[in-house]
Amino acid sequence: MKTTKKELSPVQQLLEKKYNGGFLNRSERIIPIVLFFMAAVSVLTTLGIVLTLIFETIIFFGEVSIVEFFTAAEWYPFSETEAVYGIWPLVLGTLKITLIASAFAVPIGLAVALYLSEYASRRTRKVMKPILEVLAGVPTIVYGFFALTFVTPVLRDLFPSIELFNAISPGIVVGIMIIPTIVSLSEDALSSVPEPVRHGALAMGATKWETASKVIFPAALSGILASIVLGVSRAIGETMIVSIAAGSTPSAALELTSSLQTMTSYIVQVTTGDAGFGTTIYYSIYAVGFTLFIFTLSMNVLAQFISKRFREEY
Amino acid sequence: MALTAVKTMKNNQTTQTEEVLVYNTKNLNLWYGDHHALKNINLDIKEKDVTAIIGPSGCGKSTYIKTLNRMIDLVPGVKTNGSIEYRGRDIFSKEFLVEELRTRVGMVFQKPNPFPKSIYENIAFGLKIHGIKNKQIINETVEKSLRGAALWDEVKDRIHEPAYGLSGGQQQRLCIARCLALEPDVILMDEPTSALDPVSTLKIEELIQELKEQYSIIIVTHNMQQAARISNKTAFFLNGEVVEFDSTETIFNNPADSRTDDYISGRFG
């Protein structure tokens, strides 16, 4: 059957033009190539960073023994006579900050998430969530001087034995920084438990708290654990707050009231100072960076494992 | 209003307890904001009856059954007046804890809503929140409840597996088993088969026939044949009012109100 041009409606004419132009086919072929290229760039960048870390770390271990790196109890690279490179004090510094931050942020974050998802009215939620998101958007340098100029003086008024640079103040402030991460992801996990499940528990005579703690919380556990792991891994990698408020004294002592140095703040110290290119100190930041990378990578793997292992399907 | 003769003759127990009311609703009104959803409801629901509530969508039948265990409280902006007494106790009074009411009155929902836990834990949950920790009692109750819901034979080898692995019909029977674990007095069913296939629906209906020996059942249903098959009392709701409440036989064979007749014979709804 043949149709003459006159019989075509405006819509038909446009469709005719579209399919006869051949443009559609070409763009459909090009789009996946462009997208693949973008994906390749990001994968290659990551790969490049990891490879740089590995190669420079290998050079470092040509100069400093790997046994010393893992066993020496001191990190004292700036000694002119006898530098010691034992990673333990820096790892301990990072762990102190991370533990204080988690001890502070996990209970508060989960409480806020439970409140927002199970108790708060729609209006309260509408006001509180954006405020928390603002908290997530504060630059960490601001958190850093908040720790040094506000939290530390308050702590020192309460406990005079605390030094100007210590683990507690930056630990708490790193905790404040990661609260929004924990709240936001946990709240998403809790609210995605379907409403009928809540009704099922309430209709059996469960109180609101029993429903929240014994049904909704376990159901959302995978998301909640993943949010905690993500928060913790942000605390491990946090740099600015600890550089400003924790001091720069690598310390293997197990106390929290005096100056310490984390892996990240050591890297800042070296890169902002004048350690020459090619010196042992210069290569040491790659070894420290690589150690840090192992930590955060294992947290990511842990997060993935958790969300698979505890996955609840509804 | 006499019970259907056949049903009372069958069971002497029913004859003896026939005057005992589980629910006594007087002049109940309910509003969702400005919308007057239930208008002056008066209903007496007797012990060990299967009471069906029928009516077209939006007639208030679901609202009414959710008021009976106060699940309606979860809807924001609901106002009620009038009274509902459960075994002589005002369910809206402060002295009657809503948790106690819901422990005594179980509910089965439109869509199966098992907890994201194992089959076993789904049933143990009710006992655990009410403070029963004895493992033996819990184990026995889990088996008894699953048998009571005609599910035991199908799941006895996998009671520690997730409840979401069950079919829709099995999940709904699990939800019934979950109610039975608390040995309720009344079971409310809000269109329990509307999300199920015909075979699963039939199984639930058979189950209701067994359960009515022990429990008072109030069931909201869209399906008039279902109401006719399983209930001995039927209430017809229309636009938030009770048009007619009588024995199922009367409602379906000889309704007093012409609107009931129109609905039953499929002229609307």
Search tags:
heterodimer, A: MetI-like fold, 2 domains, two-stranded antiparallel ribbon, 2 strands, 74% helix, B: 269 residues, alpha/beta, Rossmann fold, four-stranded antiparallel β-sheet, ATP binding (chain B), ATP-binding (chain B), PstB-like (chain B)
What's this model, at a glance?
The complex is a heterodimer of chains A (about 325) and B (about 270). Chain A has 13 helices and 2 strands.
Topology:
The complex is a heterodimer of chains A (314) and B (269).
Chain A: H1 10-21, H2 23-63, H3 66-71, E1 75-76, E2 84-85, H4 88-119, H5 122-137, H6 140-158, H7 168-191, H8 195-202, H9 208-219, H10 221-237, H11 240-245, H12 263-272, H13 280-309
Antiparallel strand pairs in A: 1-2
Helix pairs in contact in A: 2-13, 4-7, 4-10, 5-7, 6-7, 7-10, 8-9, 10-13, 12-13
Chain B: H1 5-10, H2 12-16, E1 21-32, E2 35-46, E3 50-54, H3 61-68, E4 78-86, E5 89-90, H4 98-104, E6 105-108, H5 119-129, H6 135-148, H7 152-155, H8 168-180, E7 186-190, H9 198-211, E8 216-220, H10 224-230, E9 233-238, E10 241-247, H11 248-253, H12 258-264
Parallel strand pairs in B: 3-8, 3-9, 6-7, 7-8
Antiparallel strand pairs in B: 1-2, 1-4, 4-5, 9-10
Helix pairs in contact in B: 5-6, 5-8, 6-8, 8-9
